[in-house]
């Protein structure tokens, strides 16, 4: 059988073991001499990484050393060798089971650190950053523990100085980092934790539920995924701030996006920036794409050249994005779905831009803003059905039931409460979720309107979240959803 890194043995960011780990790290980090501080961080990052399985360090060391050696003097052949070595390691471990390979240890965070090694190598080859001559400095960038399991996917040119520069103790970093950790824990334990049971119950047997229940489950999954993933990012960024190191932001209130392109600029920002910089733009300017675009332009002479040259790179990016999440058909179809949606959005952009003045369309009108936001959210939800479903058969069942078996009546509403439990338990769960999800969206909306909202009275907000975690948090769930990727 395939041996996955069990999240129970992994030193979760929300475990007692990790609290002890961070306490010892912070004491040493701020007590050692200036020149030794980054070395302490490297040692503790390696300890964190080896905690799940000692062999973890072998694979990440192989990727790190090979990339560092080859990119000390970047040439085209060395760049190709780096690409092949790192992708071979990734494919072998991530997708080997689909080719009959068994008893594999899946290295922790392999997808994320592979992207960082490849991003560094491509930046060196394209001369966007200087090659790092110090192996240990580069190793710290790859193994830095807050970002290794789920990102954000940092760039070496941004992170190098942040990691190796001396950071004196600053009480503000402790206060603001601690507050952000509490916020992330609240999202994970109170919101995502309470949604997990309903979503898992419904998606374990989608054919057993009516359309209304499935709509609720899909909506809950979108909120669960956001609360879980952005909650992790809050925790990771907060931990890094305790150390005086700023991480790249990975979310910017994506569910308030007004079109699908904006949505993907706000969701998993570092991954989308990585694909844009290291796959999309090189593909757009490649010789093969120029040749294909010339043929396409002869077929569609009225189309803009920029639009034609973007079509195939966009398709490739989204297919790769789907496969990166997994080799299962649901992820590939999810990627194709968003490729089609993005293409429709991109190719019709100028048409609607010219049409709006003719029909008196005002993008600042509040009703139009609401319409565009809801429309984008629905498009995202339809895609997330595939992302959550176990098989494409399950996904099609969900689509079919949503569009053919959705009724708003007493029987349907009662049936939708069944996954919550019985009687008072179901009622209490509904009330709590309405309050917490409503609160989350209210906070996000106010932050969208005014970025400085909720910047005062942090102690009060932290206290409220801690009380909610104590009373309503779902404890014992140390795993985060995106760690499977």
Keywords:
mainly alpha, 3 domains, 21 helices, 71% helix, globular
- List low-confidence stretches: 1-9
Can you count the beta strands? 0
Average predicted local confidence, pLDDT: 88
For the biggest sheet, the summary is:
none
Count of runs of 4 or more consecutive helical residues = 21
How many domains would you count in the coordinates? 3
Helix content: over 70%
Give the CA-CA distance, first to last residue: 19 Å
**Structural class estimated from helices and strands:** mainly alpha
Radius of gyration: 24 Å
Could you state the order of secondary-structure elements as H and E? HHHHHHHHHHHHHHHHHHHHH
């Amino acid at each position: 059988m395939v041996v996955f890194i069990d999240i129970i043995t992994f030193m979760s960011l929300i475990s007692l073991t990790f609290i002890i780990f961070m306490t010892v790290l912070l004491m040493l980090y701020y007590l050692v001499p200036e020149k030794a501080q980054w070395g302490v961080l490297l040692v503790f990052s390696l300890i964190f990484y080896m905690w799940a399985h000692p062999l973890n360090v072998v694979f990440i060391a192989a990727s790190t050393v090979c990339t560092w050696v080859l990119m000390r003097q970047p040439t085209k052949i060395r760049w190709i060798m780096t690409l092949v070595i790192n992708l071979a390691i990734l494919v072998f471990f991530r997708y080997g089971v689909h080719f009959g390979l068994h008893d594999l240890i899946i290295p922790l965070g392999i997808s994320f650190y592979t992207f960082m090694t490849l991003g560094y190598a491509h930046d060196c080859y394209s001369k966007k950053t200087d090659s790092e001559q110090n192996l240990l400095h580069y190793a710290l960038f790859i193994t830095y523990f807050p970002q290794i399991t789920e990102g954000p996917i940092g760039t070496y040119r941004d992170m190098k100085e942040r990691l190796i520069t001396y950071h004196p103790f600053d009480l503000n970093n402790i206060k603001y980092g601690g507050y952000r950790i509490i916020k992330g824990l609240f999202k994970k334990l109170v919101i995502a934790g309470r949604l997990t049971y309903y979503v898992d119950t419904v998606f374990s047997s989608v054919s057993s539920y009516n359309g209304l229940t499935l709509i609720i489950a899909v909506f809950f999954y979108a909120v669960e995924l956001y609360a879980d993933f952005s909650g992790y990012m809050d925790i990771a960024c907060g931990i890094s701030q305790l150390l005086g190191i700023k991480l790249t932001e990975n979310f910017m209130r994506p569910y308030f996006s007004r079109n699908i392109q904006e949505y993907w600029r706000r969701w998993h920002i570092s991954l989308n920036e990585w694909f844009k910089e290291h796959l999309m733009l090189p593909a757009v300017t490649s010789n093969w794409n120029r040749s294909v675009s010339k043929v396409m332009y002869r077929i569609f002479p009225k189309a803009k050249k920029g639009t034609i040259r973007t079509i195939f790179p966009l398709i490739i990016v989204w297919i790769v994005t789907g496969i990166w999440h997994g080799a299962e058909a649901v992820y590939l179809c999810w990627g194709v779905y968003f490729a089609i949606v993005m293409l429709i959005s991109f190719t019709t952009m100028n048409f609607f831009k010219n049409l709006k003045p003719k029909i008196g369309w005002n993008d600042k009108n509040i009703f139009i803003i609401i319409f565009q936001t809801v429309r984008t959210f629905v498009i995202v939800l339809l895609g997330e059905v595939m992302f959550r479903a176990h098989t494409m058969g399950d996904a099609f069942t969900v689509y079919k039931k949503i569009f053919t078996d959705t009724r708003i009546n007493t029987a349907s509403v009662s049936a939708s409460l069944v996954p919550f439990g019985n009687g008072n338990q179901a009622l209490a769960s509904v009330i709590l979720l309405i309050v917490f999800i409503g609160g989350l969206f209210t906070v996000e909306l106010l932050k969208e309107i005014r970025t400085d909202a909720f910047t005062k009275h942090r102690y009060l907000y932290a206290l409220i979240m801690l009380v909610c975690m104590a009373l309503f948090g779902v404890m014992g769930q140390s795993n985060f959803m995106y760690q499977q990727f």
